[in-house]
Amino acid sequence: MTEPDTLSIDINGYPTRVWRKGSGPKIGFLAGYGGLPRWIPFLDRLAETRTVIVPSLPGFPGGDRGHSVLDSHLDWLLAVRDLIDRADLAGADLVGSSVGGSFAAEMAAVWPDKVKRLALIAPFGLFDAQTPATDPWAQKQDDVAGLMTARPEIYQALKQIPPGANSIEWPIEQTRAAEAAARIFWPLGNTRLERRLPLIKAPTLILWGAEDRLLPKSYAGVVVGAIGAKAQSRIIAGAGHLAELDKPDDVAAAIVNFMS
Amino acid sequence: MQFLWFHLMPYKELPEDFKAKHPSVWVDIHSSLFDPARAHHMYNEFLDELEFAAACGFDAICCNEHHSNGYGLMPSPNLIAAALARRTTDTAICVLGNSLALYNPPTRVAEEFAMIDCISGGRLIAGFPVGTPMDTTYAYGSNPSHLRDRYYEAHDLVLRAWTEKETFAFNGRYNQQRYVNIWPRPIQRPHPPIWIPGAGSVETWRWAAEMDYVFCYLSYYGYKMAQNVMQGFWQEMARLGKDRNPYRAGFAQVVGVAESRQQALDLYSGPAEYFYGRCLHVDPRFAAPPGYVTEATQRAGIESQVKLAAEGKGGSGPATNASSATKMQSLARDMKNIVANGYVIVGSPDDVTEQLHELATTLNIGQLMLLMQFGNLSSELTKYNTRLFAEKVMPKLKGLFADWENRWWPRPLEQPQRAMLPAFRPQPAAH
Fold it and tell me: In sequence order, what DSSP letters do the residues of B33-77 get, joined into one string?
C-alpha cells in the first residue's frame, strides 16, 4: 500500500483534503460514518484500474470544521456539489458509503450530470419505524466499532492514533466526524432521501453488508425500489455497515465490474 | 449569604433492584415504573415542602427542568413556579431553569417567565441552562451540533423580547419571527436576574462574566470535588478583570442535619443511597452526543488528563470535564463512601455549619443551593431537615459575605403595591 497524492481545496473557507491515486477513468469516493483518518486498502483496489479521487466531507477527517457553517440540508448538498466540482469529479463515476452514500445519491438525484455511474454502500438517509436503524450516537464508546464493521478490530485499527500524530487533536478529529454526521442526520438518520431517489438517472449499484448492524438490510430493497430499473443490489457476505472496510476486495471488484 | 432551597422532585418509589434491572434512570426509563396516582401524592408533598421552606425563611425556593427522568419530575418547572407564586409571598422563586434551545419559539420562555414575574410580584430568578445531553439531545431530539448556537441565539432573542419597547423582527440563524412583542412583560427592569447553571466549561464562565450573570455549578458531588472547577472559574474571573464577589457564583449541596452526627447518619443514609444508587444511574451510552461538548472544552479536558498523567497523578473521582453521565459511572453508592467523598454534608447543626462555612469560603460561593429533600427522603423528614437547618444553621452563616452586594437578586414590587393572596383552605371535591 502506497500513500496517495494529497491536495487541498477550499470549501466555504475551510481547507479540505483530496486524495488522488492511480490512473485510468476517474472514480470518486465519499467516505462513511467516521470518515477516513487514513488511507484504506479498498481505495488501493480501485486504484489498480482507476484514478481514485477521495474528497473529505465537511467536518470529517481532512474536512476541517467545514460542517460548522452548514445549517440546512441544502447547505450540505451545495457544499458537497462544490466538493465534487473542485475535486475534478463532475461527470465521473461516484461511490459513496454510509453517510457518504447518502450524499452520492443526492448528487446523482439533484444534479444528474454530475454522476456517470453510481455505487451506494448502505447509504444513510432513510428510517423505517418498523425496522429502525440503530442509533450510532447513543453508544458506549467501545461499542461503536462493532456497529461499523463485522470485525470490530478493523474499525478500531482505522481509528487508532498513528505514531507521531497529535494526541490531543486526533481524538477531537474523530469526535468531530461523529458530530458532522449528527449535524445532518440527527436523530434518526432520516433526510427523506427516499423522495429524491426516483430522480437518479445514473445506473446504480446498491451494496449492503450482510452483517450490517447499523442499517437494516431491508433498506436496500427500499433504495432499489425507489430508484427503479436502473438500480440493482448485492449483499456482501461477511461485511458490516462499512462493507468496504470488512471486504475491500469483494466490494471493489463488484464496483469495478459494474462500472466497466 | 443567600440560602436557596432546591427541589429536584425525584420519583420516590423506584424499586430496590432498579440499578441491577434497569439500564438508566434517564431517557429510556420504563413507563411501568411510574404510577400517576403515587405521583399525585409526590407532587403535592413536594410543593408542600417548597412552601414549607419558604415559610421557614429560606431566601429562595428553586426548581429545574428535566425530561424523561426518574429523579426529576419537572419537565416544566414553570408550572411548579406558577403554583409556588400563589402560595408564597416574599421568597424569591428561582427557576434553574428553562433549556432555551428546546423551546420553539424561544419567546415562549420570555412569556412564561414574564408571567411568573408578574404573578409573583417580581420575585423570579431566571435560569438559562443549556440542558444536559440526556434532556436536550436524547429525550428532546435536539441536534447536539446545533444546540449551543441555538441556545445563545435563543438567549439573545429572549433578552430583546424582554427589553425592547417596540415590536421587532428577529432574523436569526435558527429563529425567524416577524412580530416579536411579548405580553405580559416582566416586572423586574430591565429583566429578572439571570443565572447560568453549568459545569467546567471555560466558554460558559467567560460568557456568564461578559453578560454579568451568576454562574451556578450544580454538582451532586459536594464541595471537595468542586474545588478544581470553582478555582478555574475564579481564575478566569480574575483574568477577565472581574471582582471576587461571591454572589457571582452558586453551588448546590446535598445537606442532612439532625441533632447529632449519628442521628443524621441514621436518618439520611437510606435516602442518600437511594439518590446516588438509584437516581444517578444513567446509561453511559447517553453520555456524549458528539458536538455537545465544544472542541475547546474537549481540548482543555484532554490536556488536563495528559498533564495529570505526566505528573503521575491519577484522577480521584470524576474528572472535571467529564460529561454528567460519565461522572455517574464512577460514583460512590454506599453511605460510607458518599460521606467520605464529601458528596453529602450530614451531621449535627454545628458539623453542618462548619462544613458549609468551609464550602462557602473555599469555593467563594454566595448563592448556596441546598438539596434538603433527596432520594426517597420522606416529607416529614424533609421538613424536619429544613426546619432544623433554618433554625440552627442558617442564622450562623447568614452574615457571611456581608461586605459584598448581591446584585443578582430579584427586586420585587414594594409591599404596598403587591396583591393580597387569599388564605388557602382545601375544599372537599364537589359531588
Answer: G--HHHHHHHHHHHHHHHHHHHHHT-SEEEE---SSBTT---S-H
Residue keyed to cell 439532625: B258
Question: What is the per-residue pLDDT across A141-150, written as a single tens digit (0 to 9) for each?
Answer: 999 999 999 9
Amino acid at A121: I
Is B324's pLDDT higher than 90? no
Of B359, B355, B344, B365, nearest to B393 by C-alpha is B355
Specify which residues A21 forms β-bridges with.
Answer: A52
Residue B193 phi/psi, 5° resolution?
-60, 140
Comparing alpha-carbon positions, the chain B residue that sits nearest to A143 is B285
Domain definitions of chain A by residue range: 5-258
pLDDT at B316: 43
Backbone φ, ψ for residue B252 (5° rounding)? -100, 140
Q: Which residues of B touch A179 (CB under 8 A)?
A: 144-145, 290-291
Q: What is the ipTM metric for this complex?
A: 0.95
**Prior bond of B105 cis (ω within 30°):** yes
Please, is B347 exposed, middle or buried when counting C-beta atoms within 10 Å of its C-beta (0-12, 13-18, 19+)?
buried
> Who among B143, B173, B295 is closest to A172 (CB)?
B295
Residue extents of the structural domains in chain B: 2-291+323-417
pTM score above 0.90: yes
Residue B141 contacts residue B90 (beta carbons within 8 Å): no
Topology of domain B2-291+323-417, per CATH?
Answer: TIM Barrel (3.20.20)
pLDDT digits (tens, 9 = 90+) for B405-426: 999 999 999 999 999 988 877 6
Q: Are B145 and A139 an interchain contact pair (Cβ–Cβ within 8 Å)?
A: no
Do the beta carbons of residue B109 and residue B100 sit within 8 Å? yes
Measured distance CA(B65)–CA(B78) in Å, rounded: 9
Mutate to test the interface with A, among B145, B292, B307, B323 (most CBs of A within 10 A): B145
> For residue B320, is pLDDT > 80?
no
Tell me the shortest Cα–Cα distance from B110 to chain A, in angstroms. Answer: 25
Rounded Cα distance between A173 and A34, Å, is 9
Q: Which fold has domain A5-258?
A: Rossmann fold (3.40.50)
The residue type found at B287 is: A
Q: Is A176 on the interface with B (CB under 8 A)?
A: yes
Cβ atoms < 10 Å from Cβ of A51: 17
Chain A hits for B302, Cβ within 8 Å: 167-168, 171-172
Residue whose C-alpha is closest to residue B274's, from B333, B342, B341: B333
Q: Model confidence over B155-164: pLDDT tens digits? A: 999 999 999 9
